[in-house]
């Protein structure tokens, strides 16, 4: 499959998402229009660096690069990780017209993008997403930020990259657990707005996960195209962009409850959150009663977590989870808002979810952990 480009037309913040194999060997060609001098500061983490930093730096040819290797994992996406990144960029004397490269999964993309956003009040950055999740979702759309003790992504900025290079070959080294977590966000696109894509995933998901490059590229391209279309309509989430948050009110509360740890990866929380959002939709009589089972069946067929019962260790009770949801950025006038669905591919924003139905969905899901 040849190289594909999704253009994100955001006026003076427009950029291309380039998707394909072997892209990093060609990096100077893609970077050239964005360079004022032949220099790039790379923010990455040690796991990705051990596998790919050498090849990335070699591929840069005459472009001089230096790199900061942060600790891998969600635990780095916080104030300390931000301070470390920004101080290093200042040590490196990165100037306003220079380019920062975020080389890694969603953690590095979100953190590196935010560091670039606040450095000297805004330096341009390029996303080089190395995980499936980052290629289909986090590298596109300009949401950058960090977690705080109050919750997920609560401090951040909209800061669009100037370029995204999604090299499909990088996914070959991704551990299966991380690949499937990223697949949670891929399924989300089908569920929120494209029933035909969900059907395609039901048919092709297993081969895609097994390593088929053409199928992977199709899924990345379709996801990025869907995300770009939504972001262009509503860059700063005043309305429609919230659809991309399907499953996330549940997910973010669960990530907070599990301490942003290996117990629950973001994409795993998204898959469980999507299943719960469809359950809630069915209980409110908004979508057919059999739809939540179909959603779960596909996730199960892929070997993914679908229920609270799949999360190891203790979880807080329903009331405590609902309290955690109170910090969600979609909250308006103190009311929770959820992304619910009338069917697969037909999501919408709902601000009148009855508290007792929400509590019942969570109580039942928590009770199933004890069975
Ligand atoms: N900004 C957005 O729009 C957006 C969208 C979705 C998710 N996110 C954020 O993204 C983060 C999750 O991203 P993630 O799942 O990529 O997590 P991650 O960055 O922690 O990467 C997942 C794991 O895969 C490893 N890894 C990454 N690329 C690899 C490769 N090519 N080969 C081998 N190992 C590799 C990492 O070391 C890590 O252990 C969360 O913080 C989430 O909130 C942001
Ligand atoms: O890009 C968006 O908009 C999304 O909601 C994509 C989500 O997958 C992503 O996890 C995002 O970071 C969540 O946004 P938040 O505003 O709820 O923190
Ligand atoms: Zn997400």
Automatic annotation (TrEMBL):
Cofactor binding summary note: Binds 1 divalent metal cation per subunit. Can use either Co(2+) or Zn(2+).
EC number of the protein: 4.2.3.4
Pfam families noted in UniProt: DHQ_synthase (PF01761), DHQS_C (PF24621)
CDD domains associated with the record: DHQS (cd08195)
GO molecular function per UniProt: 3-dehydroquinate synthase activity; metal ion binding; nucleotide binding
Limits of the 3-dehydroquinate synthase C-terminal domain: 182-331
Annotated pathway: Metabolic intermediate biosynthesis; chorismate biosynthesis; chorismate from D-erythrose 4-phosphate and phosphoenolpyruvate: step 2/7
UniProt KW keywords: Amino-acid biosynthesis, Aromatic amino acid biosynthesis, Cobalt, Cytoplasm, Lyase, Metal-binding, NAD, Nucleotide-binding, Zinc
Record's catalysed reaction(s): 7-phospho-2-dehydro-3-deoxy-D-arabino-heptonate = 3-dehydroquinate + phosphate
Stored HAMAP family: DHQ_synthase (MF_00110)
Name this protein carries in UniProt: 3-dehydroquinate synthase
UniProt gene name: aroB
